[in-house]
Design a protein that fits this description.
Layout: H1 7-25, H2 38-44, H3 50-58, E1 62-63, H4 81-92, E2 97-103, H5 116-119, E3 124-130, E4 142-144, E5 147-149, H6 156-172, E6 176-181, H7 187-199, E7 207-212, H8 213-222, E8 229-232, H9 234-247, E9 255-259, E10 265-269, H10 286-298, H11 303-318, E11 321-322, E12 332-333, H12 336-346
Parallel strand pairs: 1-10, 3-8, 6-7, 6-8, 11-12
Antiparallel strand pairs: 2-3, 2-9, 4-5, 9-10
Length: 347
């Protein structure tokens, strides 16, 4: 589902890499295209047509591009590409797990807005965001004259199931977990902290820290290397994952996975549709390519090929190839399509 803006350009490169994987590893992917977002509004009158929804239900995974743009901003909020497509998909498939890796590749340390003394040789953290609860879905919400209101609500089962993902992920990494809340102000966040603290008893090998959201935003800039796995509710995870993305130097480098408990997932780059650069051949396809790699790992259980894609990206960066957003002195600037071709060739 390529979507709008730069979506079709970067999706083409992810499919190019999947074709190279088919050749190299004797795998076969049945890829079916579907309309979504603004382009679906133009064609079908809705951001998530029935035909697209039915196709998703028959599929093993969704590889998603980007949706939205100024053309559709005048529509009622519920009909706009983002709210009309992504939120219904999350609800439909119960995609409550959002994995947002924030990685500074060693070759791109200079692209970070932070000083090298802070970044060091780069870092690799995983932000785990709860995706189907919290203030984005809580009821009641709406407008009453001059008053707008939303409800922040979480249940114990909702917190437990996302916390379990975070603890299990930390166990596979550096065994450090930081849970983000605002327990000094919000009653819902008091419950969040209580549940996470209780669950920590089942994971004695994991070092658990709690941090308020405002301090976490500051600490990400001050000392990002202190973090390994971060557990966040829906809104705080939305904010911190974008902050972490920019620390890496370009949001065009960061993939994401939205999963349910059965392995079905929606995989998309962390950046938006970037309509200002669409059609110019300068968009960075790496986040879309790495999103496809996450699909291979989490929905198709193929860790080896997942690793091969990351290795290919590293090789291309080692050779000095850059798209415009990560370009630096002495490197070779390449187009969207050329970057995809180079990575596919390394596969």
């Amino acid at each position: 589902m390529a979507g709008d803006g730069i979506g079709p350009e970067i999706m083409a490169e992810a499919l190019k890499v999947l074709a190279a994987i088919e050749q190299k590893y004797n795998l076969r992917f049945a890829c079916t295209k579907a309309d979504v977002g603004g382009s679906a509004i133009d064609t079908h009158g809705t951001a998530l047509p029935k035909s697209t929804r039915e196709l998703c239900e028959k599929s093993d995974a969704i590889l998603f591009g980007s949706v939205g743009g100024p053309k559709w901003e005048g529509l009622p909020s519920g009909e706009q590409p983002e709210r009309g497509a992504l939120l219904p998909l999350r609800r439909l498939f119960n995609l409550y797990i959002n994995l947002r890796p924030a990685i500074i590749f060693k070759q791109l340390v200079e692209a970070s807005p932070l000083k090298r003394s802070i970044i060091g040789d780069g870092f690799d953290m995983m932000i785990i965001r709860e995706l189907t609860g919290g203030i984005y879905f809580g009821q009641p919400s709406g407008r009453d004259g001059d008053i707008g209101f939303n409800t922040l609500v979480y249940s114990v089962p909702e917190i437990r199931r996302i916390a379990k993902v975070a603890f299990e992920t930390a166990r596979q990494r550096k065994k450090r977990l930081t849970s983000i809340d605002k327990a000094n102000v919000l009653e819902t966040m008091v419950l969040w902290r209580e549940v996470v603290t209780e669950m920590a008893r089942d994971y004695p090998d994991i070092e658990l820290n709690h941090m308020y959201i405002d301090n976490a935003a500051m600490q990400l800039v001050k000392n990002p290397q202190q973090f390994d796995v971060m557990l966040c509710d829906n809104m705080f995870g939305d904010i911190l994952s974008d902050e972490a993305a920019m620390i890496t130097g370009s949001i065009g480098m960061l993939p994401s996975a939205s999963l349910n408990g059965t392995g079905f997932g929606l995989y998309e780059p962390a950046g938006g549709s970037a309509p200002d650069i669409a059609g110019q051949g300068i968009a960075n396809p790496i986040a879309q390519i790495l999103s496809a790699a996450m699909m291979l790992k989490y929905s198709f259980n193929n860790e080896a090929v997942y690793g091969a894609v990351f290795k290919a990206v590293n090789a291309v960066l080692d050779e000095g190839y850059r798209t415009r957003d990560i370009m630096s002195e002495g490197m070779t600037e390449v187009s969207t399509a050329r970057m995809g071709t180079l990575i596919a060739q390394r596969i």
